[in-house]
From TrEMBL:
Its EC number is 3.1.-.-. InterPro entries: Metallo-B-lactamas, RibonucZ/Hydroxyglut_hydro. The gene is rbn. One of its GO terms (molecular function) is 3'-tRNA processing endoribonuclease activity. Pfam families: Lactamase_B. This is Ribonuclease BN. Residues 18-70 form the Metallo-beta-lactamase domain. SUPFAM superfamilies: Metallo-hydrolase/oxidoreductase (SSF56281). Keywords: Hydrolase. It comes from anaerobic digester metagenome. PANTHER family: ZINC PHOSPHODIESTERASE ELAC PROTEIN 1 (PTHR46018:SF2).
Length: 339
């Protein structure tokens, strides 16, 4: 299966957790947390549609300045999602600069503050010196915070001595092109396949698109091409979980939205030998991260935000995650945080 999302753990397992997700066939991407990072090119930041902040401890938020510096001149808007308090924190950042020469800039930033059952939405624009241009509050059903043709985004409010969001990015369904269905119909694969996918994701089944054929080109309806060439399978999902206490409440809240994530990025800050440290600071140990991954039935698991003290013991972190994950995956396997 050709994936639709290409996630990258920008800083690797150590240091600030930053996950960049490219949405394939769209010039769009998402960023999950933005502490200190260097491994993203300006062109990658320019395609950002949204920045999803777990919480505003410095190691998760300081890089927003760098994002802003790179995209300031672009026309496409940016959305910032974050937990309780994100509106004031993001506006403070924006307002800490001088904007007397920004009147020609079209950038609009929408800040979405995720709260239980509702979301505060605040719009602000560069050409208004990042003054607030509108405020509203919308109700929120379940964990959903965004819904579009290519992906949905869920946010789960968790506890980390402060409210902290875990995010789940999901593809509504996955389109698989049946390559061996081309020959008998005279179709030649080409860029029109991307157009076909875009129409199917958007539900535009009556559109006619130009298909390359051995005889030249042909106009064919999307619904017919879908029947002839496409099978749909469950969509890809990516979960981002960091800086959380290993509490029964946090685990219960994650279970629905993050269940069965194909790729789970999860903090493994300490080895379990420092579980008391982890509990005092609202962090997970590697063993707890593995246990949560097993309980969620996650596919691939990527430990991240590992404390720099373990820079030469990453093998032990990974081994602890894997062992706990295997144990929790077994029927009747260990659950709970009293590991
Ligand atoms: Zn934190
Ligand atoms: Zn952190």
């Amino acid at each position: 299966m050709r994936p639709s999302f290409l996630p990258r753990l920008v800083n690797g397992p150590l240091f600030d957790p930053v996950v960049y997700v490219r949405i394939l066939n769209e010039r769009k991407s998402l960023l999950f947390d933005c502490g200190h990072f260097e491994g993203l090119a300006p062109r990658e930041l320019l395609s950002l549609e949204a920045v999803c902040i777990s919480h505003t401890h410095m190691d998760h938020f300081m890089g927003l300045d760098r994002v802003l510096r790179t995209i300031l001149h672009r026309d496409q808007p940016l959305t910032i999602y974050g937990p309780e308090g994100i509106t004031g924190k993001a506006l403070s950042k924006l307002r800490s600069y001088t904007w007397n020469l920004s009147s020609g800039y079209a950038l609009e930033i929408t800040i979405c503050e995720v709260l239980p059952g509702r979301m505060h939405i605040t719009r602000t624009r560069a050409d208004a010196g990042f003054d607030v241009t509108s405020r509203s509050t919308v109700p929120r059903e379940g964990a959903r915070i965004s819904e579009g043709p290519r992906y949905t985004l869920d946010a789960v409010i968790l506890e980390h001595t402060v409210p902290c969001l875990a995010y789940v990015l999901k593809e509504p369904f996955h389109l698989n092109i049946l390559k061996n269905a081309f020959a008998g119909r005279g179709y030649i694969p080409g860029a029109w396949l991307d157009t076909l996918k875009a129409h199917i994701f958007a539900g535009r089944m009556d559109e006619l698109i130009t298909v390359s054929t051995h005889g030249g080109t042909e106009k064919v309806r999307v619904s017919r091409l879908k029947e002839e060439l496409v099978i749909t399978t469950p969509g890809q999902s990516v979960a981002f979980v960091t800086d959380i206490s290993c509490s029964p409440e946090n685990i219960a809240a994650l279970k629905g939205p993050a269940h069965g994530a194909d790729m789970l990025f999860i903090e493994a800050y300490y080895l379990h030998e420092l579980k008391d440290h982890a509990a005092a600071r609202g962090h997970l140990t590697a063993r707890q991260a593995g246990m949560i991954a097993g309980m969620l039935g996650a596919g691939q698991v990527f430990p991240m935000h590992v404390s720099p003290r373990y820079h030469d013991r990453l093998g032990e972190i990974r081994a602890e995650v894997e062992a706990a994950r295997r144990e929790a995956s077994e029927p009747g396997g260990s659950t709970g945080c009293t590991l």
